[in-house]
Amino acid sequence: RDVIIASANRKSAEHIKSILQRDLLFVSEIYQSGAEVLSYASIRPDAVVVCGRLSDGLPAVSLAETLPPGFDVVHLVSSSDAYQGFVSNMVELTMPLDRVEFVSVVRTLISFRVNYITQKTRSVEENDLLTLAKRRLCENYGISEREAHREIREMSMEQGVRLMDVARKILEED
């Protein structure tokens, strides 16, 4: 998952980049405006956006609300400018920045999305595996899909293993 920095202040952006890279977090882009971030978001599936004050005046809250699913914003803000509401894909960290907390938040957002994608992919793969195993039972024994599912479930409970393990075993036979 990419990390990008959005800040009108190039020097601050480079400093933030160095903090992240010291902790082995790669920063792929630095932008100065919300429009540049939105353009990036139109061609990429996801990213963590570390956001300061933007050159086009777009508030970080508006940016977070406009970004597509898969984008999270870490808003670096002075305590007097902190947003009082809730935006589901935005975390605010007040300045001066606590480096450990900052790196931890960015790392968590990166890993959360990666884990979510991995779980979703695994779930689809497991669903496909179960479907193939049921199909095999239907063909081999002339039973319905519902009966095949019940058979797999009963074998799983009897053997004390997951449904997917039974499905793999069925597919390995023959």
What does the model show?
With 174 residues, the chain is α/β, with parallel strands linked by helices. It has six helices and five strands, in the order βαβαβαββααα. It has helices at 10-22, 34-41, 60-66, 99-141, 145-159, 163-172; strands at 2-6, 29-31, 47-51, 71-77, 90-94. Strands 2-1-3-4-5 form a five-stranded parallel beta sheet, with helices on both faces. It is elongated and about 70 Å long. The two termini are 41 Å apart. Residues 114-120 have low confidence and may be disordered.
- Spatial extent as radius of gyration: 24 Å
Mean pLDDT: 87
Number of helices: 6
Q: In total, how many beta strands?
A: 5
Helix content: 55-70%
SSE sequence, one letter per element? EHEHEHEEHHH
User: Widest sheet: strand order?
Assistant: 2-1-3-4-5
Quickly describe the structure:
The protein is of the alpha/beta class and 174 residues long. It contains 6 helices and 5 strands; from the N terminus they run E-H-E-H-E-H-E-E-H-H-H.
Layout of SSEs?
Elements: E1 2-6, H1 10-22, E2 29-31, H2 34-41, E3 47-51, H3 60-66, E4 71-77, E5 90-94, H4 99-141, H5 145-159, H6 163-172
Parallel strand pairs: 1-2, 1-3, 3-4, 4-5
Task: Jot down its keywords.
174 residues; alpha/beta; 5-stranded parallel beta sheet
